[in-house]
Amino acid sequence: MAALRPQVLFPLFAKVTTLPGIGPRLVKLVEKVAGENVADLLWHLPSGIVDRRFAPKVGDAPPGRIATLIVEVLAHSPPPPRSKVPYRITCGDATGKITLVFFRGDADYLEKVLPVGEERVVSGKIELFDGKRQMSHPDHIGTLQQLDDIKRVEPVYPMTEGLSPKILDKAIRAALAKAPELPEWLDAAYQQRQGWQPWREALLAAHAPASDEDLLPTLPARARLAYDELLSNQLALALVRLKARVRRGRSLVGDGTLRTKVQSALPYTLTGAQGRALEEIFADMASDTRMLRLLQGDVGSGKTVVALLALLAAVEAGAQAALMAPTEILAQQHFETIRPLCAAAGVRVELLTGRSKGAARTALIEDIAAGRVPIVIGTHALFQKDVEFHDLAFAVIDEQHKFGVHQRLELSDKGSGTDVLVMTATPIPRTLTLTAYGDMDVSRLDEKPPGRMPVDTRLVSLERLDEIVAGIQRAVNNGAKVYWVCPLVEESELIDLAAAEERYAHLKAVLGDTVALIHGKMKPAEKDAAMDSFAGPRGAKVLVATTVIEVGVDVPDATIMVIEHAERFGLAQLHQLRGRIGRGGKSGTCLLLYAPPLTLTAKSRLETMRDTEDGFVIAEEDLRLRGGGEVLGTRQSGMPEFKMADIVAHGELLVAARDDVKLILSRDPALETPRGEALRTLLYLFGQDEAVRTLRSG
Ligand code: ADP
Ligand code: MG
After folding, report:
1. Residues at Cβ < 5 Å from ligand 2 ion
2. Cα separation of 418 and 314, whole Å?
């Protein structure tokens, strides 16, 4: 039996089509703006207000203001047939008159809602036309009984085109009416200190702002809802991790022979940061609880050799080890770096990707299953059902934000008690690390290998393209190698691809055959050819590429990087791209080409790139300028998206939630106390069913 959502939550997990006014046509729009379930509408908080409490007499109603008027309907003036003139209705009270104006007004409808001789309530903006008061398309028309419903502070919700505010508002009211009282999952003392209402009250209050201040993230009701969301996030991560830990790990201790051989084959000595990270990793491996550690380090900080030495420690201990990369190119790159070093230690290493086919694949899989391959490098092809390891004890996941939590655990399921090391090149601010990984152990490579040269970064308008191309031509004539990166955004993939091809043709026309093109839609063999040509001594000098992944290859003698439409990239992405140059002992130049005019934020972001090369500074700045949801640039970033919590505004609540979870799980790891039961409800409320399941299967 799957985990069971508590019955009290059933109404919230009904589809939005169960709400009044949401039929098959509107459901798509509601799903787009909020989500498919009633609960998603609860999380859709107002972004503004319209104050309709101002209710003057008609003669006093000032133009330009929103007002709610009680009027008598005096006369209808429909337009003559086929004319463009609007339908007009004259209304008034003892103090004056006002004309209601309806372009393409429907006579039947208007006669029904505004019958002559009756009193009605209308609310909307007062305008002045030809010196007379009018109101075009009132926002609300109602009877006197409906006065109180109309004359209020109305919340304004984030909208999408084609959806009417009235319909959305009505659906949200209906959703709120279904919100049940829920058992309190907050710690009573903490709740009291914060002055927070119970969940349902907070929800209703957050949807009923009376002033602009009530829209701030610091509003107690909003803060509470944000805390609930963060608490469920932290609790879910901690439970998944607890489960991974409870399954016993094994102690992996090698004798150091293989590592010594590889280290003496390296043309350099390890940096202090690499040494520290390895100490931490070896200590985790030696302990018999399962390891789940994040290795964070900027591009070029030397993660690969750290991973390799950890893999070798597992092999020394008599087990198998695997390294998984998010793309074939990166897997291939790791393989090529690692193979010669492993050869120095006499250790067999193989590559398994989607490209492995036929008899060679079959033979390889047999060798892996028989334990004849101590180190396997690959892509998610390692997940395939028929890939079985003899004894997988250690897995490194080079994730670059492409894998989710569950995939991470999936690979470790290929072994029993497999230790996992996750590597990431994106410097993630501390707060975001928490939301994505929970309170995971982290090793940071915060010291660059010696010999890295600074990169001179400049911002240049695309209007100066000709000058830039001329400059590139001079540099190429002097032997430089140049990356030319074009953006590729999922939503406009075809247009972007065309733009990249056009740029390629343009550069080729100017620079001749020294230009190569690589993009994700090319066949693997074509990609290889382009890469090999650019990496080799006599091949292409300019590589036109889309996105990070295609240029994820190490070409140490490339010194120039041009990034077109830099304003469309995330800062983390720009930082990663720039890290590809200035590696081979020569300083680099990075040109960030932007399409003017830049917004203030965009300008500020690009200036940050120009002014620093410190990935953590860049990440913090990006977070500050854009907020958590966008910091990594793309939706596929693997970072959780929050509906109500704002990582910047609610950063302290996140830390509090983490500490709260620590305490909860130390006292009640199976969530069996009354508060534990309430916390289960919280997890279900935020769709963390998987996390609850870890409690049942044990
Ligand atoms: P990352 O994977 O963190 O981006 P790499 O592992 O690819 O970085 O390392 C970048 C480059 O630095 C490689 O060419 C590697 O050989 C080199 N390198 C790694 N560690 C050191 C070190 N301690 N001293 C000098 N060079 C190093
Ligand atoms: Mg690397």
Report:
1. 304
2. 10
